[in-house]
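$ ./design --mode recover --in tokens.txt
reading tokens...
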């Protein structure tokens, strides 16, 4: 008799969301205050992109030269962009009540959004940095570090880092990759259980 996938095994793994939004921010930190300069999000339905949100954000705080080099965002590029209050309202409308996933967003992006009047912490479901950390010795064995770009490259995912739209998309593909890994592990676990219960089960292949 063929068994279903082990429930206990699946429960130990990452939550499987059918519809979700991956998001990311770029920000300019001056005197310990972070000013949002780009907000991006991508909406997925069964891991297929169905919509996206992407905008630069105006700030009158001079951009750090480090940020210019890292993100390619310049003062000229954001000079005519909407202010943060307008962007927060539009972003809230885009997100709605859907669950969110991100990469290390609990330590940076979510608090910064909350500081700007948009608290999405209750909708945040999965942090892929935490997932990568938990998988470092197994699924990511040998990886140099857990930066988003490094994890993406390790998994064969292409993308340009430090652009929040690209980072959101890379985060979603990492999520899908980890889910596929979990599914494969669950299948192998099922096969091992079947073989353990019936040592002769594998012989059936010779008589098909």
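writing sequence...
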């Amino acid at each position: 008799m063929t068994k279903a996938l082990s429930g206990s095994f699946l429960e130990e793994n990452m939550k499987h969301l059918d519809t979700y939004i991956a998001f990311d921010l770029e920000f300019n930190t001056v005197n310990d205050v972070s000013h949002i300069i780009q907000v991006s999000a991508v909406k997925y339905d069964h891991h297929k992109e169905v919509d996206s949100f992407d905008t630069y954000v105006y700030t009158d705080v001079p951009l750090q030269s480090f940020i210019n080099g890292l993100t390619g965002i310049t003062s000229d590029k954001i000079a005519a962009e909407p202010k943060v209050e307008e962007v927060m309202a539009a972003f809230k409308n885009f997100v709605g009540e859907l669950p969110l996933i991100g990469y290390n967003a609990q330590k940076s992006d979510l608090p910064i959004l909350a500081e700007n009047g948009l608290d999405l912490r209750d909708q945040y479901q999965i942090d892929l940095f935490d997932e990568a950390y938990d998988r470092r010795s197994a699924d990511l064995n040998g990886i140099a570090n857990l930066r988003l770009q490094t994890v993406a490259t390790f998994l064969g995912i292409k993308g340009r880092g430090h652009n929040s739209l690209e980072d959101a998309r890379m985060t979603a593909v990492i999520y899908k990759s980890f889910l596929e890994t979990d599914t494969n592990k669950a299948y192998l676990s099922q096969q091992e259980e079947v073989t353990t219960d019936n040592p002769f089960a594998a012989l059936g292949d010779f008589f098909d």
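exit 0
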